[in-house]
Design a protein that fits this description.
Blueprint lengths: L7 E2 L1 H7 L4 H14 L7 E4 L2 E5 L13 H5 L4 E7 L5 H18 L5 E7 L6 E7 L6 H11 L2 E7 L3 H8 L3 E7 L1
Antiparallel strand pairs: 1-3, 2-3, 4-6, 4-7, 5-6, 5-8
Helix pairs in contact: 1-2, 4-5
Length: 178
Amino acid sequence: MLKREKEYYSLIEVVQMVDLKTRAVKYRMLEVKEKYKNNSKLLFKSKKNWNIHHSILFEFDRKQLTRMEKLAKYNSLVTVAPDGNYQVEALTEALKLIKLELNKIDANCNMYYYIEQGERSGINHIHFLTNLSPNFEKRIYRLCNIYIKSNVDVRMIYEVRQLVKYLQKEVRLKGVID
């Protein structure tokens, strides 16, 4: 069963969710408090605790990317739904072969993958994030179908945090292919 996203988070929960130190989050809270002072539905204080609506959590994201985030900025989500039930090891091996071929297109290609088992069908499928743009959709589709007969969907990534939450729902295996 999927865990439903909370509507409001406390400041302590925000500190645990974001990649910032506690002190930095408190300073950021001063800015957020000023920005949303007229909107009590998005930000309000009850007793001594702040209630922060989930739609404004982006305000607590890092303003500057870390070195790793700069290197691994993902642009596309690729979903591979195989025709048939492949073992996790076979899917991982296919991903490695696909990565080798993608490196011929772009030597700086990064892949972060999730192998999941569908709730209803019980069939394993793959989601992977890549820094290649969706313009490479036809090449990615061809490569995936060389190694695994499957349906392939390539989409642009807009909101990374919500996407990662979604991808972690039924994970069997996840990792980075270098």
